[in-house]
Amino acid sequence: MDVEGEVPAAAAAAAANGLGGAEEASAAPVSAEQLDVEAYAAQYSGRTRLARLLFIADRCGVEAMQLEALRMAYDEIKRWEDVQLHRDVAAKIGGRLGPRFGLDQAWVDTVTRRADQRKEKLENELNGYRTNLIKESIRMGYNDIGDFFYAHGQLSDAFKSYIRTRDYCTTSKHIVQMCMNVILVSIELGQYAHVSNYVSKAEQTPDSLDPIIVAKLKAAAGLANLETKKYKLAARKFVETGIELGNNYSEVIAPQDVAVYGALCALASFDRSDLKSKVIDNINFRNFLELVPEVRELVNDFYASRYGSCLGHLEKLKPNLLLDIHLHEHVETLYMDIRHKAIIQYTLPFISVDLNTMATAFKTSVTMLEKELAALITENKIQARIDSHNKILYARHADQRNATFQRVLQTGNGFERDVKSMLLRANLLKHDYIQKTSGPRKM
Amino acid sequence: MESLEALVAHIQGLSGSPEEVAHLHSLLKQADGEPLRAHAAALVPFLAHLSPETHSLGYLYLLEACATSGSNLSDFGGGDFLVTIAGFLTACSADQIRLAPDKFLNVCRVLKDQVMQLIMPIRGIAPLRAAVRKIQSSPEQLTPVHADYLLLCLLAKQYKAGLSVLEDDIFEVEQPKDLFLYCYYGGMIYIGLKKFPKALELLHNAVTAPMSMLNAIAVEAYKKYVLVSLIVNGQVPSFPKYTSVSAQRSMKNHAQIYVELSTSYSNGRYTDLETFVQANSAVFQSDNNLGLVKQVLSSMYKRNIQRLTQTYLTLSLEDIARSVQLETPRDAEMHVLRMIEDGEIHATINQKDGMVSFHEDPEQYKSVEMLEHIDSSIQRLTALSKKLASIDENMSCDPAYLMKTGRDRGRFDGRFDYDDYDSVPHKYF
């Protein structure tokens, strides 16, 4: 993996000019450097490369980048045998790249024919193995079929085949292999519950696992948590991922991604002590962060309370993160959380804070800041009050004694009310009961 | 059947001591019925011979015969008859009339009907209040007269008069229908006096009372309950689990509009709520709830302003107007001023800068009044707890209860064990 191709997310990347069109416009003006599609795609292999390229093509608003992505996707697909994707990509290109990139019907036909043949052969073999009842052969047969379906883009069939190998696994190595296959397909299908499931299955095998496999499992678990919005768990998993991951899991995730996802989730969900111990002082994770120096700067700025520059870095990263297939839906939430945490952390040490200085620190206007603070106070995340006339924020600590008295009186009233109604109801029931036992009587 | 004169003589003679009264009672019961009523017209002059305090029982029988005789009361000189009844109710002796409660209730009912017919409800208030006290065997008992009395107070708009009866807690109820009416009218009286928390309590009792089938009074009570709870708490709580099953299932269906109102209220936007109310004002009007609904509207402003006091120390009037969705800062100023006067918030308005400063609640819980208040609350609650404990004890000694639990226990063990018996509580002498 070349350093130059460091995820442009990391380098002094910035949004392309037209990028804001598709998503919400980024606040800070940025220089017009585009995501280097080729370098980005080079980090990944397998189907995820295709998926990512297509995603970029769909999401980015810049024609040049879009065509670049589509072109690369087209070439990539020729290496695999997924006919449907080929059709989709050809349709999307729509002839804009010239005749070489059109729907290649001949190729489609050959591939389909070859696929049918191979499928028949595999199925026959499998049936043969099944009659012979040789476990290992059956397992390998299902595996091969699973791989075949995967290559053809028939993901749910692949999923089913991989699951069926479970019954024929004899050693833990087999189990692990099965789990890894299932995880791969589930991630692509978007079924993250299965991912978590099989990660824990794989981790429970009695034999000790290869550190690379451990790292892969942790990364997959983190991804599953991220997609199900459990940011704290995701962060924990990502920071625990071993550096041995390297490029070995490029069919799912690149190490830069681990760094970025982990850092963002950690910033949004960890408290200060966790942030220090698990992220900043974590030697293991530091290796990941080295790959994305911008994110490393970001985390350090946050911890050192340099909120302005921290938020600035975040804004710069945003456009490229919006192109990432796993992160894009969570970017807004994570950013909002990080911003809120920054504000809360800022106000914590002071008795009174001048809103003007705070607004410059956060690079926003006083009115916007006042609104944000009001929202946070209403949610009880900051204990303070705003003096809107002088634009000062005063810390305010509840008077415990008064609050206790109030609560006591309230509880007393509530008790009285409830007991009285209860006695009344008991009485009504008693009369009802008496009437029932003494026979029907006119009400 | 004795002649009327003889009857009257008996009454006059036998109203001395309790034994005599009992004898009189049996005589009267014999003489009671259609024959007496047939002579209704002739009875009136005899009433003048009897005195309501000493001859209450006899008076009552004769009066009741006249009143329920079916002939028009104006035959008896309308207004005067009313005065007679009223005089009797105020002056009668409680012990004697308790021997014939149904008759007494009939007389009260007649009074109420008459008064309502004459559209002068205020004339019925004083006599009925006296009647309530007399027929109650204890201040905690609910009688049918309660409901009638409250109805008259409502019609006459004499809410304070209703208060004296409402202040007693009711623990004994004989007829569930009385309870529903009592709670409903009582709730309305408290609403009229703007004592919303107490109204909420009564309406809550009406809504959660045990009932095998939904009744119309409970549904009306529920509608008002929704509105009052929006005013007091800003939200409508869900049914507690002791609500009857029939209520939980179908109450909301009958009060659909109100449920929608409460969801619209919880969204917090005044304009939406206003449009909703306008659109459905006909429905609210037909339920006679339009006034209450308007109060719900204004309570929304109050709630929003109160929320502001939690976040700001000072705030300009324009900002208040904007966040609460009022038209102009002047409106905001008026609202805040009214809330300060009502004691709902603590603030000062600085007109020069157009700023409002919010203060903390100045109550320090250190004053003598507060101490007395807390002390009396504690005493009240201790008394209530004792009452609860004694009722629980009585219940545990009740034979029906013992049989039920003993039976269950027996089923479980399959045989009677001395250990089982020992753990069942006995009444300690």
TrEMBL record, chain A:
Keywords in alphabetical order: Coiled coil, Cytoplasm, Nucleus, Signalosome
Gene Ontology CC entries for this record: COP9 signalosome; cytoplasm
Subcellular location per the Swiss-Prot or TrEMBL entry: Cytoplasm; Nucleus
Coiled-coil stretches noted in the UniProt entry, renumbered to this chain: 112-139
SUPFAM superfamilies reported for this sequence: Winged helix' DNA-binding domain (SSF46785)
PROSITE patterns in alphabetical order: PCI
PCI domain span: 230-400
UniProt xrefs under SMART domains: PINT (SM00088)
Highest taxon, organism lineage: Eukaryota
Family: Belongs to the CSN1 family.
PANTHER family xrefs: 26S PROTESOME SUBUNIT 6, COP9 SIGNALOSOME COMPLEX SUBUNIT 1
Name the record gives this protein: PCI domain-containing protein
Protein's organism: Miscanthus lutarioriparius
Automatic annotation (TrEMBL), chain B:
InterPro entries assigned to the protein according to its UniProt record, in alphabetical order: COP9_N, CSN3, PCI_dom, WH_DNA-bd_sf
Localisation per UniProt entry: Cytoplasm; Nucleus
Keywords of this entry: Cytoplasm, Nucleus, Signalosome
Transmembrane segments: none
GO biological process, one term: ubiquitin-dependent protein catabolic process
Principal location: cytoplasm
PCI domain span: 195-363
Gene3D superfamilies reported for this sequence: 1.25.40.570
Any single Gene Ontology cellular-component annotation: COP9 signalosome
Homology family: Belongs to the CSN3 family.
Protein name: COP9 signalosome complex subunit 3
